[in-house]
Design goal:
The structure holds 2 protein chains of 2 kinds. Chain A is mostly helical. Chain A has 4 helices and no strands. Chain B is mostly helical. Classes of the chains: A mainly alpha, B mainly alpha.
């Protein structure tokens, strides 16, 4: 076990040796498998025609798989899972803001599109000149 | 719990100050990247048309014009994940005060970092120097993908030109977001590689051996894993969904 960086740190929580390496290998395999599944789903959407609803569902699944990857990278590779509960919370709780952040802004973007479309003007994609046109016509 | 941890003489949360601060820095960086990616999502979902990533990113080095969507970016993801694993092993070697182990795994991590940067450089070069026929103001021009213009708009209503389809210019925001976000991430990878090289040199010189601990390697490791994690989401937003 390592010497304390300072005398203020009282214990270290990492299991020694082979048990740890095994855990890392397991996690690596898991991350690789999840990545392969994501790629498979992505290629599925590319290769086969499917309804918008199904595509959206598959995209949702891919996002959840990526969140699972994040959970494993942060929890195991970065050892956050081995830290004191309150430390984990000081990091995870603020990051929950992302849930609102993502939902709010994607809904915003979608609403923007709907508003522009419903104005009755033709919105067929046209050649765009730089810089991009502002949101209001 | 209160009296046990907060009564003084002990480091809060039982971690070294530098490690705790690295975590909070990474949180701030997560919000920065998150803001960029979410704004990308907002703009993208506000448009009726957006380039299909399977069409834009379908090339592979040395494969000529083969249509290989997602292939190259998968390789990049795999490279970064593996370099993250070698970093974990370097930190682990540090915990055991295994100097040679630290050196070995840090070298592999640095190689992985350079490999990723090389791949990203190839991807950028390929996009910027790409030659695509597009219809601009009634003329057929040949352009690549840049921050100001890109050839990924819907097909033009004209006959094919020299056997190639003629397109139109795509949404201007595409270039800025792609190069901006992958560039910002690439900058983090590059700085991470530099930090890792410094860590390697310090390890070789015996700096950590003398100190009696490899804490700095652990902090560098946190940064490196963060870089990998951001890539997971960049990959997700630009290439998969």
């Amino acid at each position: 076990m390592e010497h304390s960086a300072t005398s203020e740190i009282t214990f270290h929580h990492e299991p020694g040796g082979d048990e740890f390496v095994k855990k890392i290998i397991k996690t690596t395999v898991l991350l690789s498998v999840i990545t392969l599944i994501e790629l498979g789903l992505g290629l599925l959407m590319y290769a086969y025609p499917m309804s918008d609803v199904l595509k959206l569902f598959i995209k949702g699944v891919i996002v959840i798989l990526s969140l699972a990857k994040a959970f494993y990278i942060v929890g195991i590779f970065m050892h956050l899972g081995d830290e004191i509960k309150n430390l984990i919370m000081t990091i995870i709780v603020p990051l929950m803001l992302f849930i609102w952040f993502i939902a709010a802004f994607l809904l915003d973007g979608n609403s923007w599109k709907n508003l522009r479309n419903s104005r009755g003007k033709s919105v067929t994609p046209v050649e765009q000149h730089s810089p991009a046109a502002e949101g209001k016509h | 719990m209160q009296t046990k941890w907060w009564s003084g003489g002990k480091s809060p949360f039982n971690v070294e100050y530098g490690k705790l601060m690295m975590w909070y820095f990474l949180m701030s960086d997560a919000f920065t990247f998150g803001a960029f990616l979410i704004s990308y999502g907002t703009i993208r979902f506000s448009q009726n048309y957006w380039p299909d990533p399977n069409v834009v990113f379908n090339s592979f080095p040395f494969a000529g014009h083969a249509n290989l969507p997602l292939a190259f970016v998968s390789l990049m993801t795999f490279i970064l994940i593996v370099s993250s694993v070698t970093m974990v092993l370097a930190v682990h070697a540090g915990h055991k005060n295994d100097k040679q182990g630290v050196i070995k795994w840090m070298i592999w991590t640095i190689i992985g970092g350079f490999a990723f940067l090389g791949c990203q450089a190839w991807e950028w070069t390929h996009l910027i120097t790409g030659d695509h026929a597009v219809l601009i103001k009634g003329q057929i021009e040949h352009i690549g993908t840049t921050v100001t213009m890109n050839p990924w708009g819907p097909a033009a209503d004209v006959a094919s030109h020299d056997g190639h389809h003629v397109g139109t210019t795509g949404p201007v925001a595409f270039g800025g977001y792609f190069f901006g976000i992958t560039g910002f991430h690439g900058f983090h990878v590059f700085s991470g590689v530099i930090i890792n090289i410094v860590m390697l040199v310090m390890a070789i010189n015996g700096t950590f051996e003398r100190k009696g601990h490899y804490m700095m390697i652990e902090k560098a490791g946190l940064y490196w894993h963060f870089v990998d994690l951001v890539w997971v989401f960049v990959f997700l937003c630009f290439y998969l969904i």
